[in-house]
């Protein structure tokens, strides 16, 4: 996969792209990450890429020319998804990450100031994404988050091919608790079932823990999750216990 980022502050990406999973993914050839300064396509000696908004108002707006020129240059002969990081965009989810992980080419547009010229939104981008109902100084941090969630899904990136499948939200539920050595630490012990060696019982425990954690922390996820009859009975048990408490 090729991922290209257009930003006014490209240096922000060097640390994130040069460490951990993103670094390993590039070394393995699973992804190519490139960041370009939007000012490179300003077309003027002052490298100006923003201007005052028509109609007045506070702040500056990113001009259309540099962004169109940058995208057209980068994507010549290609048809990538053009992703605008924007608080008005659709809420980013694991499902969206899985969808984008199927693409070969992605371009992320990171803006600053008051916003983008609307013609960028209407005639250039294919997707608008928000990572939450809050406002950041620019789109860079959001783009890093989205890119990380996509790249870790690519084949060969994680140590175990099925690691991401068990992650919270990948299955539609929150992930079950994890424990490692030592079995006892300061009086805190690992659940006996995990030490039993009974893989069927362990799988059942993990499923129940996942359901319980989702029920307690994100019950909204259960509204659209295809619960089995057995899982429905367990959720009813949790509800009854909650009412009795």
Strand and helix map with partners:
Blueprint (H helix, E strand, L loop, with lengths): L1 E6 L5 H5 L2 H8 L4 E6 L12 E2 L9 E2 L1 H11 L6 E11 L2 H7 L4 E5 L5 E2 L1 H6 L3 E4 L9 H12 L32 E2 L2 E2 L2 H4 L3 H19 L11 H16 L1
Helix pairs in contact: 8-9
Description:
One of its GO terms (cellular component) is cytosol. Its main location: cytoplasm. Keywords: Cytoplasm, Methyltransferase, S-adenosyl-L-methionine, Transferase, tRNA processing. It is found in: Cytoplasm. By secondary structure, the chain is an alpha/beta fold. The chain folds into 2 domains: 2-151, 3-Layer(aba) Sandwich (Alpha/beta knot), CATH 3.40.1280.10; 171-244, Orthogonal Bundle (Trp Operon Repressor, Chain A). Helices cover 36% and strands 17% of the residues. The chain is built from 9 helices and 10 strands. It has helices spanning 13-17, 20-27, 64-74, 94-100, 118-123, 140-151, 192-195, 199-217, 229-244, and strands at residues 2-7, 32-37, 50-51, 61-62, 81-91, 105-109, 115-116, 127-130, 184-185, 188-189. A hairpin with a 2-residue loop joins strand 9 (184-185) and strand 10 (188-189). Helix 8 crosses helix 9. The longest helix is centred in the C-terminal third of the chain and has 19 residues, at 199-217. It is elongated.
